[in-house]
Amino acid sequence: MSTAFPQAHVEKEELNLPQLHLRTVLADRFGFADFRANQEAVCEAAQAGRDVLLVMPTGAGKSLCYQLPGIVRGGTTLVISPLIALMEDQFWKLQQLGFRAARIHSGLDRADSRAACLAYLAGELDFLFIAPERLRVPGFPEMLAKRKPTLIAVDEAHCISQWGHDFRPDYRLLGHYLQLLRPSPIIALTATATPIVQADIARQLALIAPTHFIHGFRRHNLAIESVETAVPDRPARIASLLADENRRPAIVYAPTRKLSEELAVRLREQYKAAAYHAGMDANDRDRVQRDFLDGKLEVVVATTAFGMGIDKADVRTVIHAALPGTLEGYYQEIGRAGRDGLPSRAILLYSFADRRTHEFFFERDYPDTELLKRVHAKCTDEPRDRESIRRALRISAEDFDKAFERLELLGVCASEQDGVVYRTGAAHGRVSWQESYAAQVSQRRSQIDAMQRFAESHDCRMATLVKHFGDATDRSPYCGQCDVCSPEQAIAQQFRELNAIERKAAGTVIRELRSGNARSTGKLHKDIFPREELSRNEFEAVLGALVTAGYLFMEDASFEKEGRTLSYRRVGITRDGEQLDANDLALLRIREAFVSEAAGKPRKRTGSSTTSPSTRTKNGAGAEITLNPEETAREQRLRVWRSSEAKKHGFAAFCVFSDKTMRAIAVDRPTTVDDLKTIDGIGPAKAARYGAEICRLCSEV
Ligand code: ADP
Ligand code: ZN
After folding, report:
1. Are the beta carbons of 261 and 275 closer than 8 angstroms?
2. What's the gap in Å between 478 CA and the centre of ligand 2?
């Protein structure tokens, strides 16, 4: 056993347990031939008694990571789980495997709970599942402490953090009560925790030198696109994106119940589609879920309520009909595509209007601190009638409810079912509740910002998500599939040539950055267009075109101001950008927002596949062409070379040339550098730098 970790916890020897080998138990009791990625290391750490923080996406096999070490350590593993459905599911699965499991939650009667407690105290259980609010029942934590568990698993651990996207106040009890059950090691599991949430989980659960396992966020079979699309255009756009039957079954996420219904009606014109949301009655929801699983429905238009526990392996497409509220939620939702490992797509439709919607909800859900202060001041330690307080404050029921809900979430006020409210007297450590609230407000705002930045970004979509979750072992900046890495493979994103003004702006940006350092995009805009001759949005689009082509790089940066961290985007020039000339500028392509003719802007058509080989390849983005075997082999050679070239210099493969250009080279087979220059995407700079090597590759048989 490694000595690098403090051994604060119970060891097997002390408990006189037989040494069981993890692999033997994995095969004999769980019936699995082998571990999945990362499971073994996690199980070893938990078996050895270390505290563990495990962040892996849904479906990665996290449950085994507490169940197997739990069995090997012997005694009872206590599992805290927030949802009855999840608890029941695990309970039945474990029973079927022949383990002794019990659960205690509000859906069971008292006799069952009593029996579970007695079995626990008699040492007859391998697993005991409880909901966090159980710990509030007087005497319950003490009962657990009479016979301590040998392992504690906290499932959905992100719920403990107010920085997460699914905070549950009951989870806050854990920090205190689990201490009574120490020295059992704690394993905290979640599918969704950013680095600040991870730190918060560890702090609140008082984990001792936890081993972090944060893995598996890169999805290799998911092509992500994010496309600016006007709101009225979205229904038709979604319908047409799903027209190819290989893109179904599909889940479409809608922002509201009403929109999910409306969209379902529209999609039913073409597909077997249904809505799914929390406002429907349970039977209807079950039926939709079942029909989707059975293949009787091809498209479900859902609010975020859909998906918890859905295990449909062959979902080909997940479309977001609007900008989601958090990147964590978004990642979970797109994660429902392609569980079978086959190529799948995630398409996000957004526009600035979505930002306004989020602002609206933000204002509604996070009332002014002054209002919270007034409500808090009126509550007392003695329970008082909710309605009379509201009247005394002369505020609307809606304002009162929102403010009170925040105070409850902050833990400083509480309410009973009979309409009485009171102050809890809970302390917030060294910070006041006002400070906690201010931090929550700013956290919520930065979540919306992060989501919007993602939508508008010119960085690889997958790399951005992996980075967001803080998997430090995965640094690849390039996925090769998203609309940024492989614009030519995009099905929703469209590109167009720059107009004269944009092209001129691109030239000015390059000149400006050649003579100076990297700087913030905002400052660059002001420096070049002090009178907003080009709007900030148009300017960003031009920068995006230059970044995608590999002439500029963009990165997140931040600075401290008055104790706050402010983030911004910094842009600088790449080596290719230093060498670029006017001809290269003519080849730039800009992302086109999808706006229908009705909305005033004609949509560009892409090329067809019936034209002659050399012109085929020069058609617009997205043109599908079929290569003959020789061309395919050449394309493959070019791809291998491109990837090693990119690796050597540490930039993305498309910076060498895009897939579209590669295909054109494979078809045209240039033998001289001059020939090569006639191909779209190869300007003089690239021709000079790579020409000889490309021609050599093309001359190989
Ligand atoms: P998570 O909690 O990470 O979402 P689960 O624990 O529910 O994932 O596991 C997902 C599926 O993978 C389950 O059906 C589980 O039985 C299966 N599974 C887990 N570990 C293994 C393994 N080592 N070999 C084969 N299947 C596994
Ligand atoms: Zn990518």
Report:
1. yes
2. 5
**Which of 36, 93, 213 to mutate for ligand 1's pocket (most ligand atoms within 8 Å of CB)?**
36
- Ligand with minimal distance to 215 CA: 1
Please name which ligand lies nearest the alpha carbon of 654.
Answer: 2
Structure tokens at 595: 């706006």
DSSP code, position 560: E
**Quick one: what percent of the chain has pLDDT higher than 70?**
90
Residues in Cβ contact with 380 at an 8 Å cutoff, skipping those fewer than 6 apart: 422, 423
> Which residue type does 106 have?
S
Flag whether the pTM goes above 0.85. no
Spacing, Cα 218 to ligand 1 middle (Å): 17
Q: Is the CB of 59 under 6 A from ligand 1?
A: yes
Cis peptide before 249 (omega within 30 of 0): yes
Amino acid at 80: I
Ligand 1 pocket: which of 28, 32, 35, 64 to mutate (most atoms within 8 A of CB): 64
CA angle 419, 425, 431 (to 5 degrees): 125
Q: Which whole-number Å values give the CA distances from 44 to 22, 39, 50, 78, 670, in the listed order?
A: 8, 9, 9, 18, 56
Selection from 441, 388, 375, 442 nearest residue 414 by Cα: 375
Distance from chain centroid for Cα 494: 24
Mean pLDDT of 410-423: 85
Q: Give which of 345, 380, 320 is closest to 246, Cα–Cα.
A: 345
Give the model's pLDDT for residue 60. Answer: 87
In 366-428, alpha helices (H): 369-378, 386-393, 397-409
Nearest-ligand number for the alpha carbon of 548: 2
3-state helix/strand/coil string of 7-42:
CCCCCCHHHCCCCCCHHHHHHHCCCCCCCCCCHHHH
Q: Computed from CA positions of residues 593, 597, 601, 607, in that sequence, does the dihedral angle turn out positive or negative?
A: positive
Nearest to residue 63, comparing CAs of 182, 190, 206?
Answer: 190
- Cβ–Cβ under 8 Å, residues 125 and 137: no
First to last CA, the chain: 56
Task: Supply 611's token pair.
Answer: 């034209």
- CA of 118: how far to CAs of 111, 114, 599, in Å? 11, 6, 68
**Per-residue pLDDT for 618 more than 70?**
no
Round to whole Å and give the CA distance between 156 and 158.
Answer: 6
| Whether the CB of 585 sits within 6 Å of ligand 1 | no
Q: What is the mean pLDDT of the chain?
A: 86
Q: 15-70: per-residue pLDDT in tens? A: 444 456 899 999 999 999 999 989 999 999 999 999 999 999 888 899 999 999 99
Give the tens place of pLDDT for each residue, 318-331.
999 999 999 999 99
Per the CB < 8 A criterion, the answer to whether 149 and 178 are in contact is: no
